[in-house]
Amino acid sequence: MNYPCDAVTTPVSGFNCTPNAGISKFNVTSGLTYRLRLINSGAEGMQKFSIDGAKLTVIANDFVPIQPYDVDVVTLGIGQRSDVLFKATGKPTDAVWMRSTLGTSAFVGGCTLNDGISPEAVAAIYYQNANTSIVPTTVSTVPSSEIETCANDPLSSTVPSFKMMPPVKPHTEQIINITYQSNGTHDLFYMNNSTFKADYNDPVLLDAKLGHKTFPAEYNVYDFGASSSVRLIVYNYAQTGVHPMHLHGHNMYVLAVGTGLWDGSVVNANNPQRRDVQLLPNAVSATEPGHIVIQFDSSPSTASVWPFHCHIAWHVSAGLYINILEQPEAIKHDMQIPSIMAQTCRDWSAWTGKNVVPEIDSGL
Ligand SMILES: [Cu+2]
Question: Which UniProt keywords apply (predicted)?
């Protein structure tokens, strides 16, 4: 959209700021209902999506259909997707704003690190007889308290359409404590006192295929063996804000979200929210963490090495990452790794034998 190019203080090679770049325009017809597939494809900012004067009906989170419910604003952490219904109930001549706002900066109590110059993106929605040469003049009626809430909607609101009940007693339970501390030169994220660091020349999945059972500590490998059900109790002690935690390969059950120590209670225990990214609350203080409790089912069909990490680009860059090694025996005996992968590893090994590859961060 339009951005005040004078505000660009650190030009990035290859990117130019175009003054008065214009806005995106969407055309709708009065009386119809539209499905919007929203994704936050950003690096850090928690987006709050709304359409002036409209309620939006959420029908899916991270592609998992849920029982529809209405909101003023849709909260999207990095990587989160929500499908919403927008009913175009306006007059044929109406024009309204669609908004995605980052709210106020985290430095003054908000949810994101925006610089305050242009924290709200807008696009125009034009009904069929609207004058598309002028921009809308509508204002947002979303309460500021909803913009300032750094959390997904309550788990009690998000009930999957297809019922699945996770085991009350999982096969394996693991606590993950996230902290933010110095390694001597840099402040990094630590998972149970270990900050993640990848070795580009040593893929964990290949190790698992070869039957290796032990890994360097900095790979942050959690071997859950043949557990049929795994629960992670994740505590955020970092006091750096909210983390959109993402699990690969599964729709995880989100059993609880809160602050302090988990009291064991589960929301919608017979059919909890399932999705693959969930906002983990900020720590209240150094001794009072935020928490989420997630759980996933496992079988030989889900055998792999699955990342579980924060989706904020520079948090995962700073080590907020673990590898979940699932069903290693099935990997060793049943998984077919295409020969092109082995060839790629050999080629990479040969090239890195003669060229230094700078690994400036965790390696992810
Ligand atoms: Cu994070």
Answer: Metal-binding
Query: What is the CA(188)–ligand 1 centre distance, in A?
Result: 11
Q: Report pLDDT for 360.
A: 92
Q: Would you place residue 304 in the very low, low, confident or very high pLDDT band (cuts 50, 70, 90)?
A: very high
Ligand 1 centroid from CA 204, angstroms: 23
- Domain 172-352 classification at class level: mainly beta
Task: Tell me the domain boundaries of the chain.
Answer: 5-150, 172-352
Distance of CA 119 from the midpoint of ligand 1 (Å) = 20
Of 276, 315, 310, give the one whose Cα is nearest residue 296. Answer: 276
Task: Compute, in angstroms, the gap from residue 215 CA to the centroid of ligand 1.
Answer: 25
Q: How far is the CA of 278 from the centre of ligand 1 (A)?
A: 11
Cβ–Cβ under 8 Å, residues 189 and 235 = no
Amino acid at 198: A
Q: Which CATH architecture has domain 5-150?
A: Sandwich (2.60)
| pLDDT tier for residue 281 given thresholds of 50, 70 and 90 | very high
Measured in Å, residue 143 CA sits from the centre of ligand 1 at 26
Q: How far apart are CA 82 and CA 66, in angstroms?
A: 10
Instruction: Give yes or no on whether 5-150 and 172-352 have one common fold.
Output: yes
* pLDDT surpasses 90 at 286: yes
Q: Given a cut of 90, is residue 58 above it in pLDDT? A: yes
Q: For residue 243, how far is its CA from the centre of ligand 1 (angstroms)?
A: 4
240: left (phi over 0), alpha (psi -120 to 50) or beta: alpha
